[in-house]
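ARCHIVE CARD
Drawer: 12
Card no.: 0347
Subject: one protein chain, sequence and derived structure
Cross-reference: see card 0346
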Amino acid sequence: MDVAVLGATGDVGRAVCAGLIERRVIRPTSRLQLVGRSGGASGRAAHGLRADLIDAYDEHAPFIDVATEPDDVVADVVVVAAGRTVPTVPDQVIDRDALAQANLEIFETYARALAAHGSGHEVVIVVSNPVELGVDVFARALGRHRVIGMGAWLDTLRFRREIAAALGIRRQRVGGFVAGQHGDGAVPLWSTVRLRGLDADERRGVVARLRGDRDLDTFVDEVAHAKQDLARIGRRAAAEAFTLVEEWPPDVKAVVRPYLTHTSGAKTANGTAGAAIEMVDTLLDGREIVVAGQVAVAGEVSFGGEPVHGVLGLPVVVGPDGWSRILLDDLAVDEERRLAAVSRQISSALAAWTSAG
């Protein structure tokens, strides 16, 4: 089984490539394709990255090659990590419109190339932002079940980690999902939280203690105020900023801590790559598991009696051929209300981004 990484020489791309080999997700008999841009710095660096990876992992490295033209990308799993990223300046507003405008052409170029010259069965994992735009573009070109955005899975893993840290347990004992839009539009689904070893009543007690009397109607404002507090501290006191984050509830931490990590200059490449690698591993070894991911929904779920048609992060069953079905139990009232609002926001943003492109 072969894997191609678009944007292989970027921060996340490098971490994905190294992790796939180091964790032996890709076997020595398989191929890892490093994709850069012809005539650009990434195209030149891809050859150097190939040499470096072979140097580091020669004993168990797969066959590694370089592609610098979109038409040459062929693999069973394609990881999209190419394009511009959000700024690392603490007080600089993240302009998702500008990010979408910059990355839309990249998404469309590779989507067209895979549709015309791909294997016809590749599964695409979208890492680049805006994740929802990438999913929309690739799903239209390749079919919606073969495309999944890993933003919601990354948000889910962060949410589980923050709950685990608050309880002093390992993340593996925590279940639960984050849905919605990657970033500030994330919707933590507290109703889905499960804690291994606790019965339903015990779980409800723990969730009530961690969450308090808050609900999702105030969550957006909480995140915005938290970011404002961090922006006031800025780069001058990183340790103080990270200490401040510890005062907030797990769901707020799950959204704000990555923002602080990125704007500190460290970025979030390793965490992002780790989530992508886990998804690649699932696709390659034939398992079916439930993850959260941005997918193109065609009426499978409804909020307030209105079927959803568009891209949204939701819990889905993922297997070797992509995602097969959405698994969403009855939601709390505030969760359904917030997801409906986020779904409308995404649809509106996608309409604006694609028409402008």
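Annotation on reverse: The longest helix spans residues 333-356. The longest strand covers residues 289-303.
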